[in-house]
């Protein structure tokens, strides 16, 4: 298949390409970025993709998958904005849809020597960013770099199943695909609301700032021509993290949104309660928290007030700021135990690992890097107080797989309030999903799982991601059936519940 | 298979059930606890369960499994009490046998909103506990929650293979099963000694307090009608943990049992030696230790004496108490290096994570949650001293899988005294066992393993657990044979040794 | 197959063997070291070994493997010495070739109670070491202990494919194999240079001390009869680790080699630069670093000078020494960003875990034990400075698998300078390799991998190790093809690149 020898490897760049490279980026000198790849290979995702190869097991998996393939999509956590559906403006072009805003995609291209500017990301230094067609070409030329990644699966499915593309992206097909997709995206059936319908979405949760007036959510609810369900999620990170320079400004914004003075602890807490109430009145069922770790504090009122004053006045130490953040996370748990909003909690990532990229291109640009996680000790103070409280419920996510079997499954296997969050972010890919099930099921069964969340910023990736999760669960369960650990009827019930009952139950949707 | 739509999901509770739930337990409001499940589905564990689906590989696995299926059971570590066999009283009913005392079972039902009282656990607050029939009903109604868990495999095997049940537990079958099993358990062939024989147990180690007089062990040994082998294990945790309020009382108990004054360090150490000697005289070959971590200290005599005095007199710090505990664990290692008792060591769990449950229902009620483990540094002081000492031997267990490939296999692959303990507690389940073999074998081979331990409190689960382990090992080895890494004759020898030679060697049984 | 009962287990030692054992080594009393094993079982590695059993998938795997089986070997990191090829002396006997110098082999035999002396390792206490024939016998008698290990795969392949052996090592065959191999090794075609040719090695990197004059490398380059490529690697560990008593002597050696006074910081840094330049002039493309962790420091010149003086004069604290080591590692990164040498970095092992063995038998004797690793925070200061610098490049290795998915794949998936090192040391075995691919590919694709390194001290194991890696990659990719995640043409391209382009690119070879 490969006639290449060591002297002329199949995938070596041409000398011309090499010299061009060398003048601009030695770091990627040897990376395959300039390799001419593919011509017009067909894009035809296999109907049995992700299902196990052994014939008997595949048969079981196919039946299980078929039984849930067309279930409605329940998306209890993600980053699509309500504005998208409220405005219902057409998408403009494939680069702006699939490449530039997706940091799963841009980070890997960046790792192969492309700059954020070449990928169309806005640069606060003012350097020009590439036009969408250029971005799309760059993406298509480097498509093979995504082989084996979750992104490749999703984008193949989006291109083929949603957008009707039948040819693989490549240098040779980039321009025709750009033109074809740009035209198609202008059609009525590719507008966000039409896609929402065709995706079979039954409920979609957005992620919102507590000071947000939720105008777009309201616009949707009040629009008689709209019958979908888009609910906000209360995400108060910037109000709880008292260690950042932005915290005072956040307090002001909260004061304005709530009409409550946030200048002392009691007022601040009341303002948060006020905004939670506002969110619930607009359909929210959950809060969402990214914290350095899962630790909470429960100081009494006076102590909390004094701590707040120190931090608020700028006289507190770093430890004070950290403790106040833990205290505020504890307040969130307390509020959840009263108002019943589900507390989605994820920890352990170093955000903005490359400061220069953060400065120029902003957050969520692909260099948030996970850290070791610890939950057994960290969650204890919260679970000691609320772990068996029937109104309290939390869904715990991690980027550190080692806690699945060691900590999260045992916790979810005892506390009625703890749901196991799906494998998430870097772990929302087929093999990682299998590892998750293997790690937790033997300890916690299937019914302590929160089901799948897509966590996506890419609206068109929603059906692809849910489809992937359904296929992986079908594959996984088919293994248990083929090994005679559960029978096929039970497996069918389980997979149905995982993609229907469990996310509703976990997020009280 | 599932006709349910999003509006009427197959497994949604009825409105009546819902309102009933809401009044009593919102935490499990959305959990499937009230779902009517199953009618009279047959219970018929497949003869090839746990064996791989690919036909060639399954053939290999089946031959390997058949070659060890009927080997005697060697159980070098567990929590069955000698009294059970000494008294030989019949079991009373299935709930008292299979549900209430098994914290693998009660914890998962608790996670789905059942209370410990509903599960028959004695409540020190005096709240009434459910009668066995009620407990059994609750268990049967929620049987589907165990799908995919190790507990389900074991209980299916116990019900079918030991107790002759041929119908799955369900709401519909609960009462008839209760009656049937209650009657059957009263028959002579279901008494503990008869079961011991029918299980093919060759050696069974109990876990005992150093102050125990081992009267039940002695009764068995002296009973001419009894030919089994039940040996005690020396478990001195409460004497070594100098940080607990119970420690002084433990010292008094030890003094009484040994007839040696434990009021100074030398006496205390001599008292421990005395009780080890007593245990060895009653057949013990091993000690068993649950420590916060594996660290040992080796202070000289005077320093140890002074430390002991500080802690004993209540003037020591927390660090003193910790150091004394490490010193005492070091003494255990030293004693093992002299008397040859095998030191079984397991670390890294937060016991009593939910204090209220601990207070009301006692220890071992399902909320001991694992922590990160570290052995490379922690074991170093002990192995520096005794690691190549031919009388010293230790078997190391962990609840943190990450140390298998990183630390334990490399340690067991160098030190002749270190045996790899089997995957244990939350990890004694099929997929976790496969992960264990994958993690350690390439570094340490098969012959540094201690073989399987069942670690069970449930007498009737012994054959099920050993059978599961044999099946998993057959499945695992069949993979190596099918990939032509080892030949089938070698695999047969290995699986035999894993379930016969290795536990004898590791525990010097 | 096994007629053994509990009383006479198939593999129990004879009573005679037992009593013999007991007198000399109770620690291995129950170990199977004395078990007579095997007679004349054939040694015939299966052509499809390591390929998946399912027939369709095996067909794919076989085609993928065939497409790379005969590719030249690129070995960018290992411990074969240039002297071996420069001198081209014949190997003397199989024990000196395969057993005594291979700490993968000696450590496991040691774990089963054999002493280092019995394995031929030189003892600085002067105790006699066994003769090669005795060592070989000991090895052959215990050959079954290696079942399931990576070492067994490699040695089987070496014996069969390189040395033409067709019978398994065993007590019965030890002497004839020793004689046969000793004779064969004296033949011209088994000399190092002839083997280099027959192994198809295209490039081989050695690991060298910065003060080394590289005379053997030069001798090879200047030898007109030699056409291979053997390049040195700059490994400055002992110069960078300021915490050891040997550090001052290392500085002197460096001063002598460079002709630059290393008595102050500036001179020391210049001397290191000088030796890097020297190494580059002799073909080196990379440096290699084993550090306690990956942390670097970047103090300014004056501060560094003062720190150096404190440590150099012996007045510095332990923290000073550590900080200086981090500063020096930072200098290495800075130099790499200027001279373009690739920085291979591996961390997290406790070397010399058993001090007595270290003292008597030296380093690299099988008791270097891995520790937990952390890279996200530790690498940040270095990557903040050089992470997107096109001349800077690093290949990161770990002994702690947990960082693959959590830290290394996300880092390599963003920074163009970071390549994922292959699974290494204890992890360079088939199942660990599969876990590595599963852990990283979904996040980072295939093209952020550095390809395989053999890291071997055993020259004859080079082809076996590369062949194993190619088989495992073929097996792994065949799974993705069989699950329809990538098509077979793409898989063929990927496996070719993994064993050709990627190591060249990662190590700039």
UniProtKB/TrEMBL annotation, chains A, B, C:
GO MF term list: glucuronate isomerase activity
Gene3D superfamilies: Metal-dependent hydrolases, uronate isomerase, domain 2, chain A
Pathway assigned to this chain's UniProt record: Carbohydrate metabolism; pentose and glucuronate interconversion
This enzyme's EC code(s): 5.3.1.12
Catalytic activity: D-glucuronate = D-fructuronate
Any Gene Ontology biological process: D-galacturonate catabolic process
InterPro entries: Metal_Hydrolase, Uronate_isomerase
Pfam entry (one): UxaC
Keyword Transcription assigned: no
Bias (Low complexity): 1-17
Ranges for region Disordered: 1-57
Record's keyword terms, sorted: Isomerase
Family to which this protein belongs: Belongs to the metallo-dependent hydrolases superfamily. Uronate isomerase family.
Name used for this protein in its record: Uronate isomerase
């Amino acid at each position: 298949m490969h006639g290449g020898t060591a002297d002329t490897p199949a995938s070596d760049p041409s000398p011309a390409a090499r010299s061009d490279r060398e003048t601009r980026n030695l770091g990627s000198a040897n990376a395959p970025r300039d390799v001419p790849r593919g011509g017009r290979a067909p894009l035809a995702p296999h109907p049995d993709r992700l299902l196990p190869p052994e014939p008997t097991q595949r048969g079981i998996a196919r039946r299980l998958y078929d039984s849930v393939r067309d279930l409605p999509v329940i998306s209890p956590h993600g980053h699509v904005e309500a504005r998208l559906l409220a405005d219902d403006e057409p998408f403009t072009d494939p680069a702006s849809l699939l490449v530039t805003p997706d940091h799963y995609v841009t980070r890997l291209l960046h790792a192969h020597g492309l700059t954020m500017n070449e990928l169309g990301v806005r640069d606060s230094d003012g350097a020009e960013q590439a036009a969408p067609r250029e971005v799309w070409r760059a993406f298509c030329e480097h498509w093979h770099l995504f082989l084996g990644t979750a992104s490749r699966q999703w984008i193949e499915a989006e291109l083929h199943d949603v957008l009707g593309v039948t040819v693989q992206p490549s240098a040779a097909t980039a321009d025709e695909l750009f033109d074809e997709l740009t035209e198609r995206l202008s059609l009525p059936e590719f507008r966000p609301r039409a896609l929402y319908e065709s995706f079979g979405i039954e409920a979609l949760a957005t992620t919102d700032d507590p000071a947000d007036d939720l105008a777009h959510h309201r616009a949707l609810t009040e629009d008689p021509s709209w019958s979908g369900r888009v609910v906000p999620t209360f995400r108060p990170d910037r109000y709880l993290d008292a260690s950042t320079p932005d915290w005072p400004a956040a307090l002001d914004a909260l004061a304005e949104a709530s009409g409550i003075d946030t200048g002392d602890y009691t007022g601040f807490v009341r303002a948060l309660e006020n905004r939670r109430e506002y969110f619930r009145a607009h359909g929210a069922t959950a809060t969402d928290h990214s914290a350095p770790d899962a630790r909470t504090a429960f100081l009494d009122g006076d102590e909390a007030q004094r701590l707040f004053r120190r931090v608020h006045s700028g006289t507190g130490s770093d430890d004070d700021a950290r403790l106040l953040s833990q205290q505020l996370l504890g307040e969130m748990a307390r509020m959840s135990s009263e108002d019943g909003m589900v507390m989605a909690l994820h920890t352990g990532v170093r955000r903005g690992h490359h400061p220069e990229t953060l400065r120029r291109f902003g957050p969520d640009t692909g260099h948030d890097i996970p850290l070791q996680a610890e939950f057994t000790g960290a969650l204890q103070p919260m679970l000691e107080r609320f772990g068996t409280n029937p109104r309290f419920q939390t869904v715990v996510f991690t980027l550190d797989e080692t806690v699945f079997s060691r900590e999260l499954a045992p916790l979810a296997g005892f506390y009625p309030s703890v749901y196991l969050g799906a494998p998430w972010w870097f772990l929302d890919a087929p093999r990682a999903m299998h590892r998750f099930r293997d790690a937790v099921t033997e300890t916690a069964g299937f019914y302590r799982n929160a089901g799948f969340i897509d966590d996506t910023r890419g609206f068109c990736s929603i059906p692809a991601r849910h489809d992937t999760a359904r296929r992986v669960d079908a594959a996984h369960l088919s293994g248990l059936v083929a090994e005679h650990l559960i029978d096929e009827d039970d497996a069918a019930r389980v997979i149905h519940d995982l993609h229907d009952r469990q996310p509703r139950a976990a997020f009280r949707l």
